[in-house]
């Protein structure tokens, strides 16, 4: 798929450290006008946020959208629960994953696509501490190999 004028606003990099990412879905979000302005300004935080399937709808919890400076009385609660827009087939699939156990719904990034605010939602399985250590060890070994390779090539 082409890069349909996507502008990434925020990413949840910690999710890649804490979870194995199984599948990804793109969803719209139901927002108020002042929230959209605040998100466009980059004042959003996905840390500690998660999604749940309740009553055949997907809800996003703990996404912090800072109040818009010029919003006055129209500003909403920064941590309010927000509805995600997915089609019925996707919601049923997500509900099946979550009911299976061990899986959770984690937002990976929030971005603008063709002027609309979208969120990338992932079906993820939690990593154990030894999994995290293993990934860190592999990255360190790869870095060391690349460093050694670079030194040997420069020396020639």
From TrEMBL:
Record has Lyase as a keyword: no
Q: Which GO terms describe its biological process?
A: trans-translation; trans-translation-dependent protein tagging
Q: Which Gene3D superfamilies match?
A: 2.40.280.10
- Single annotated GO MF: RNA binding
Q: Which InterPro entries match?
A: SmpB, SsrA-bd_prot, SsrA-bd_prot_CS
Recite the UniProt keywords alphabetically.
Cytoplasm, RNA-binding
Superkingdom of this entry's organism?
A: Bacteria
The compartments listed are:
Cytoplasm
Q: Which GO terms describe its cellular component?
A: cytosol
Reported function: Required for rescue of stalled ribosomes mediated by trans-translation. Binds to transfer-messenger RNA (tmRNA), required for stable association of tmRNA with ribosomes. tmRNA and SmpB together mimic tRNA shape, replacing the anticodon stem-loop with SmpB. tmRNA is encoded by the ssrA gene; the 2 termini fold to resemble tRNA(Ala) and it encodes a 'tag peptide', a short internal open reading frame. During trans-translation Ala-aminoacylated tmRNA acts like a tRNA, entering the A-site of stalled ribosomes, displacing the stalled mRNA.
The record's family statement is: Belongs to the SmpB family.
Known NCBIfam families for this protein?
Answer: PRK05422.1, smpB
Protein name per the record: SsrA-binding protein
Which species? Caldanaerobius fijiensis DSM 17918
**Organismal lineage:** Bacteria, Bacillati, Bacillota, Clostridia, Thermoanaerobacterales
